Amino acid sequence: MLLIHGWGGSAASDWHDNGWGGLLAGHGRAALAVDLPGHGRLPQSHDPADYADLAAGVLAELPDGGPLDAVGFSLGAKVLLELAARHPDRFGRLVLGGLGGNAFAPERLGRELADALEAGPRAGTPAAVSDLAAYGIGNGNDRLALAACLRRTANPVLTPDRLLRVRGPVLLVVGEHDRVAHPVQPLADALPGAQVRTLPEVAHLDLPASAAFQRLALGFLGEGRRLA
């Protein structure tokens, strides 16, 4: 079971620390949680050019063989869709958390956030930007690597036409208070047959820790095993 975290998180902070490994093991699944390029505790590049293809960086971490079910959160969900569009035969059921219309949009606070990571928040830095910078650093990431990732040439670039290549069943899960992913419908329309679930009282960054999200994801992924 592939798990891809969101921007500013890591395999440890989004998945392991929130108990996903144990939950999956209890359902007979082994968790493969990978760090996005520019994230995690290993040394990372500070050159934006090295983040020109995030999906290729994740693909290099995947085992050979056959289709993987997967869960992605936020940027990780966007990368997961890119992978599934490039290699539809390698993926089965997909759970995409914290992703909606933002799948087709650039990172809204990217430049300001990169500035805050490189030089620190300044007078006049919006609170949302300062909070996101603190979130990324607090999860054990290299602040300059995070900034370089934000300054990359835009990728993945998803379009409704490209998403027609995605073959497996898809579940979209967003929190009621997710100001990043809403509106969800543009993405749901581009993935015919996708199921959409909205979790009450859940904000964007709270989704990986949400027990309701975990239950929905495990139930949806388990449907595939019962049908096999």
From TrEMBL:
Keyword set, alphabetical order: Hydrolase
Name of a matching Pfam family: Abhydrolase_6
Ranges of residues in domain AB hydrolase-1: 2-208
GO molecular function: hydrolase activity
Lineage: superkingdom: Bacteria
Gene3D superfamilies: alpha/beta hydrolase
PANTHER family to which the protein is assigned, alphabetical: ALPHA_BETA-HYDROLASES SUPERFAMILY PROTEIN (PTHR43689:SF8), HYDROLASE (PTHR43689)
Protein name as catalogued: Alpha/beta fold hydrolase
